[in-house]
């Protein structure tokens, strides 16, 4: 009876197929993904690049800004096949379900759907898994799976579009936009299984896809789906080169890959000086390697904002410095406290430094392997340690490090300031005197000679004509005037003046002594006559006296001149 029952009853696997209502999968399906270099869209040889799902690394969410270059359209989709549900394979064990390497294969902000792909040979239960959409860091919608199953080597579409009858509905339809967004697939334990970001997204792998997309998709290399953990390399966007739309459940094929260009790891590039508190802040980089390097794709980031500055293609020789002016970038560099990061093209941090309490006019510099504050800002030159800023003019720094006024030395009696230009110090007076230009004496013309006394030119003929003749007898030549004068005799001695007279100091002659009182007038008439007579008499006396004085002055002119000289002395 048991044998008969076994022959009549179908096997449990057949019962499972009948309950799910799906067709068996073809024997040609594989359970592998195509691993490609981080900067390539497809493997050079799909068979040689295939790896088992269990060996795929866990993706990590890397925050990085999108590059400016457009996504290369490297995927050429084949004709869209009609989706046929495959024969369910045996469900994976519990351990594999928690670590299954499921991938996000398509995202369409335009059609509002997300597609997942199972690259393994086993069906995977999605209980506890989540698919979430983010705008920046804000979740806008998604789906938390309960009893859904994604079949081996097959797709699962999440959409509220009624035309997609096999699709799973969102718990909340995400508000996806073409310019920016992220989709995160998380396992039941919360670990991320896959991430894609486009535009100014905050969550992505490697580098984001350029914004403005309608649909992004992974391409296939044969039966293997491309996955290099770099969104820009793995996904293509919008239409294909032959203007074909990629729809759900399609397996777009990749073209033969070109020679991959590896991402710049920026090895040998280091931060050297951070000048944040000066008029024109800059970040200085240095090549510490022993060979020339390029900065193409390397990035700078600060703690002040989330923007990254992608450096241009600059070649630096060993030891060469390069100062990046902050005003020419989109970075914000805090003046006193902050942190600066140097990232490679992949977005990984290769160097960083934090600074605090930077004084005005100082910089944060690397000296002998240590970061220190220095007041010697050396843009484009080797770093130099300077503990203090320069003191103002007339001040000096003391032992305690403070600027104090320089005391002027006491001026001594012999300490004299230098004379101005064009002057000299007189050796006797010690005063500054103007330097006189040497004067050239012009020779006297013919018939003239230069007098030693006056230094002037005098006529020789005039000098000869003025030759003094001997004085007559009884006279002598006055050495002062050069004239002949009578020799004074004994009779020339002045006699005493009579009573009522005095000798004039000018004329040396006797004159009447003037009285201080006026004469008494008896009557008015008599007085008038007397005054009139006296006036006439005085005029006569004055005229005679004037003549006498003139004659005396002429006769006694030499004596008078001698007397005047004595009086002056």
Features:
single chain; alpha+beta
Describe this structure in words.
With 569 residues, this protein is α+β, with helices and mostly antiparallel strands. The strands form 13 sheets. A five-stranded antiparallel beta sheet has the order 10-5-4-13-16. It has a five-stranded antiparallel beta sheet with strand order 24-19-18-27-28, with no helix packed on it. The longest helix has 32 residues, at 524-555. The N and C termini lie far apart (177 Å).
Cα-based radius of gyration, to the nearest Å = 61 Å
Number of helices: 8
**In total, how many beta strands?**
38
Oligomer: single chain
Major beta sheet, specifics?
5 strands, antiparallel
Strand order of the largest sheet: 10-5-4-13-16
State the secondary-structure class: alpha+beta
Q: Helical content, roughly?
A: 10-25%
Shape: rod-shaped
Stretches where pLDDT is under 50 for at least 5 consecutive residues are 1-31, 37-57, 64-89
- What separation lies between the terminal Cα atoms? 177 Å
Strand content: 25-35%
User: Mean of residue pLDDT?
Assistant: 78
């Amino acid at each position: 009876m048991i044998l008969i029952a076994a022959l009549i009853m179908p096997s449990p696997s057949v019962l499972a197929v009948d309950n799910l209502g799906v067709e068996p999968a073809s024997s040609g399906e594989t359970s592998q993904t195509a691993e490609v270099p981080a900067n390539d869209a497809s493997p050079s040889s799909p068979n040689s690049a295939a790896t088992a799902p269990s060996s795929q690394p866990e993706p990590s969410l890397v925050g990085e800004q999108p590059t400016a270059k457009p996504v290369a359209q490297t995927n050429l989709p084949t004709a869209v096949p009609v989706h046929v549900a495959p024969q369910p394979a045996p469900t994976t064990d519990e351990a594999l379900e928690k670590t299954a390497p499921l991938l996000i294969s398509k995202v369409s902000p335009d059609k509002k759907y997300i597609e997942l792909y199972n690259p393994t040979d086993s069906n995977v239960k999605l209980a506890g898994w989540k698919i979430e959409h983010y705008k920046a860091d804000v979740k806008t919608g998604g789906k938390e799976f309960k009893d859904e199953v994604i079949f081996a080597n097959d797709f699962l579409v999440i959409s509220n579009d009624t035309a997609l009858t096999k699709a799973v509905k969102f718990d909340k339809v995400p508000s996806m936009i073409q310019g920016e967004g992220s989709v995160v697939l998380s396992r039941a334990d919360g670990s991320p299984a896959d991430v894609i970001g486009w535009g100014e997204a905050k969550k992505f792998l490697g580098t984001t896809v350029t914004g403005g997309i309608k649909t992004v998709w992974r391409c296939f290399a044969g039966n293997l789906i491309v996955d290099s953990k770099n969104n820009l390399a793995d996904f293509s966007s919008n239409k294909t080169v032959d203007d074909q739309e990629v729809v759900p459940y399609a397996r777009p094929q990749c073209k033969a890959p070109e020679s991959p260009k590896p991402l710049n790891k920026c090895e040998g590039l280091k931060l050297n000086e951070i000048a944040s508190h000066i008029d024109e802040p800059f970040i200085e980089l240095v090549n510490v390697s022993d060979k020339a390097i390029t900065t193409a794709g390397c990035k700078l980031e600060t703690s002040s904002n989330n923007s990254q500055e992608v450096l241009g293609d600059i070649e630096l020789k060993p030891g060469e410095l390069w100062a990046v002016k902050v005003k020419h970038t989109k970075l914000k560099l805090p003046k006193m406290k902050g942190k600066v990061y140097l990232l490679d093209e992949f977005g990984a941090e290769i160097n960083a430094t934090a600074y605090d309490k930077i004084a005005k006019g100082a910089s944060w510099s690397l000296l002998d392997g240590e970061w220190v504050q220095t007041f010697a800002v050396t843009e484009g030159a080797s770093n130099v340690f300077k503990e203090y800023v320069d003191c103002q003019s007339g001040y000096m720094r003391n032992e305690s490090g403070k600027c104090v006024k320089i005391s002027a030395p006491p001026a001594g009696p012999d300490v004299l300031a230098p004379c101005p230009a064009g002057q000299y110090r007189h050796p006797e007076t010690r005063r500054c005197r103007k330097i006189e230009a040497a004067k050239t004496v012009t020779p006297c013309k013919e018939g003239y000679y230069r007098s030693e006394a006056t230094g002037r030119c005098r006529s020789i003929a005039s000098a000869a004509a003025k030759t003094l003749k001997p004085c007559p007898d009884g006279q002598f030549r006055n050495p002062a005037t050069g004239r002949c004068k009578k020799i004074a005799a004994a009779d020339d001695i002045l006699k005493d003046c009579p009573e009522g007279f005095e000798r004039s100091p000018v004329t040396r002659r006797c004159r009447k002594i003037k009285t201080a009182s006026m004469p008494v007038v008896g009557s008015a008439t008599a007085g008038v006559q007397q005054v009139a007579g006296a006036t006439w008499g005085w005029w006569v006396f004055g005229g005679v006296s004037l003549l006498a004085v003139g004659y005396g002055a002429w006769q006694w002119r030499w004596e008078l001149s001698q007397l005047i000289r004595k009086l002056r002395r």
